[in-house]
Amino acid sequence: MAAAAPTTRQRAVLIGSMGFNQILAWGSTFYLPAVLAEPVSRSLNASVPAVVGALSWSLLVAGICAPVIGRTIDKHGGKWVLACSSLLLALGLTAMSYASGLALYYIAWTVLGLGMAAGLYDAGFATLGRLMGTKARGSMTGLTLIAGFASTVAWPFLASMDASHGWQTTCRALAIIHLVVGLPLHLLTVPSPSPRAVAPPKKVKNSHAPVDSSLVWIALFFTLHAFVMSALAVNLIALLRGHEISAALAVTLGALMGPSQVAARLLEYAFGRNAHPVWIARIGILACMVGLLAVGPGIVMLSLMAVIIFGGGNGIMTIARGTVPLTLLGSSDLGMHLGLIARPVLVAQAVAPMACAYILVQLGPNWLTWIMAGILGVGALVAFTKLRAFTPALA
Predict the structure, then answer these.
(1) Using CA atoms in the order 175, 12, 63, 206, what is the torsion angle rounded to 10 degrees?
(2) Number of Cβ atoms within 10 Å of the Cβ of 103
(3) 8 Å CB contact between 266 and 145
(4) pLDDT band at residue 384, thresholds of 50, 70 and 90?
(5) Average model confidence (pLDDT) for the chain?
(6) What is the three-class DSSP state of 68?
(7) Model-level pTM?
(8) N or C: which end of the chain has fewer CB within 10 A?
(9) Confidence of residue 209 (pLDDT cuts 50, 70, 90)
(10) Signal peptide position in this chain (predicted)?
(11) How is the chain split into domains, by residue range?
């Protein structure tokens, strides 16, 4: 018998549970080196770039594994995939806490890369699409609203734990939270999907070519955005300082990124839920480009607006990452599509910080601003010319 669709209450519990686990997963992987890189480098007697480079390696691992993870969710649902992500992240963090050199440290990040592929946004979006079909858009927005607080929650926790107990104990504490809280939440609140959705509808095969064409452009669009966002996530403070913004003020402005992302997602949820996801994506990429260009003059108030606009654009782009493929490609094989999109996106996120730092050092902040804005401009061109703002027949 087919499983019943989640009720409103079950959906709220599901989004709350998955949102908590997104905060935990992002906080114990992507946002972890920002706080722990220096103490880890001292402990391992390694350079900070070598320590931070492990995150880039883990993103490459996640990108390689993402399509397989997506196909697994399409076939079996996301419950056990998400549960496995809790186990993998706990295992990777535990291994990291015992690292005495870079070899074990990179092995630990390899395991964390597998956990990231199985537990971050793409897996979450695929799970929601598998459960709710084309009605998953609101749930995807809700998930990003909660997960938007990842850095806000993670950085103070990591800094406090490191200061009082050290980075090894911090990693072990995170592993315990994954096992004691995250894993049970995945097992108890993520329902198994309806068996009727296991086999893809035949019409997907009949439209294989157009789906592939759309998939390429969608992947290119989100890869271009991911490259710029990942680059600036690491180098935003340095970019602001290069435009004559003081160090203290640059840090203050950078801290506005998180709240700006959440505020934009709230606005999208309140006023944009009926807008076509492609138009949401177009607004998002344009906002990112305008915000980046506004950094250039080095005027404090303009830089303040720039960070808010850029952060807001990135916030709604995160939502579009799930809703655009859902709308244009349909809910059948959504996990596979998201996985295929995630591969180049994660590779771009892995290489962007190093490329951005090189451009900043060799060419200066003005060249970096124009190059990154140009990349976003290409993304906007793709969005307006290759992503169609209409809703085809969805599975």
Answers:
(1) 150
(2) 10
(3) yes
(4) very high
(5) 86
(6) helix
(7) 0.82
(8) N
(9) very low
(10) none
(11) 8-191, 207-385
- 10 Å Cβ neighbour count for 346? 27
* Stretch 117-131: mean pLDDT: 92
Q: From CA 24, how far away is CA 255, in angstroms rounded?
A: 19
Q: Report pLDDT for 207.
A: 38
CA distance linking residue 237 with residue 242, whole number of Å: 9
Summarize pLDDT for 287-340 with one digit per residue, the tens. 999 998 888 777 888 888 988 999 899 999 999 988 999 988 888 888 899 999
Whether the CB-CB separation of 114 and 281 falls below 8 Å is answered with no
Position of tokens 């180098």? 235
Contact between residue 23 and residue 154 where contact means Cβ atoms under 8 Å apart: yes
Q: What is the C-alpha to C-alpha distance for residues 174 and 36, in angstroms, rounded to an integer?
A: 13
Q: Is the pLDDT of residue 218 over 90?
A: yes
CA–CA gap between residue 329 and residue 216 (Å, rounded): 11
CATH of domain 207-385: 1.20.1250.20
Compute φ and ψ for 149, nearest 5 degrees: -90, 10
Instruction: Establish whether domains 8-191 and 207-385 are of one fold.
Output: yes
Rounded distance between C-alpha atoms, residue 386 and residue 380, angstroms = 10
Q: What angle do CA 352, 366, 233 make, to 5 degrees?
A: 35
Please give the DSSP secondary-structure letter assigned to residue 394: -
The two three-digit tokens of residue 271, written as one number = 């006023």
**Which residues, 6 or more positions from 195, have their beta carbon under 8 angstroms from its beta carbon?**
2, 3
